[in-house]
Amino acid sequence: MHTDPTPEPQEAEQKSEPKETATGRLKEKLRQHLEGARVRLEEVKRAITGLREGDRGALEQKRKEVHQRLDAQQARAEQLRSEKAGHGKPAPAGHETGQDREQLVLQAELAEAYAINTVMVAMMDADEVEVAVLEALIAHEVLDAYLETQEDGEPDEPRDY
């Protein structure tokens, strides 16, 4: 009997499907978190662009909302920091160093937590950016209102920072 060495189509499909790995799962989780950070920055950009000039009340309200969200995020970040206290930035793991499975799992988990926390900090930074931009807009609204009451109404030349 002659046997054909080519695998059946179903067998070939099973062999070609990549095996799910811890690295693959982490990549997907980090991709999702990074996408969340990107979306958050886009939301900040749209919110700032959508604010009407001269609407100081809306600026103040938006700043208050962002401050509240930032306070909640900072509390959560502090909680995460206290949970991970003492661990610090994880050292790179490697099976060449003679580490046992338990140590490698722990280092992988710490490295994952560190990466996710770092992304979360970046998202908090986006909120801080939004607050800074809102505060700058409010300051300029106040300046514009002041200048309207002045005789010449012309502001000094803007400063480059």
Shape: elongated
Structural class: mainly alpha
Assign a percent range to the helix content. Answer: over 70%
Low-confidence stretches: none
Count the E strands.
Answer: 0
Strand content: under 5%
Number of helices: 4
Number of domains: 1
Compressed to H and E, one letter per element, the order equals HHHH
* Radius of gyration using CA atoms only: 26 Å
Q: Tell me about the biggest sheet?
A: none
Mean pLDDT, to the nearest integer, reads 75
Q: Give the N-terminus to C-terminus distance in angstroms.
A: 84 Å
Characterise this structure.
It is a single chain. The protein has 161 residues and is mainly α. The protein has one domain. Helices cover 71% and strands 0% of the residues. The protein is built from four helices and no strands. Helix 2 (22-50) packs parallel to helix 4 (101-149) and helix 3 runs antiparallel to helix 4. The mean pLDDT is 75.
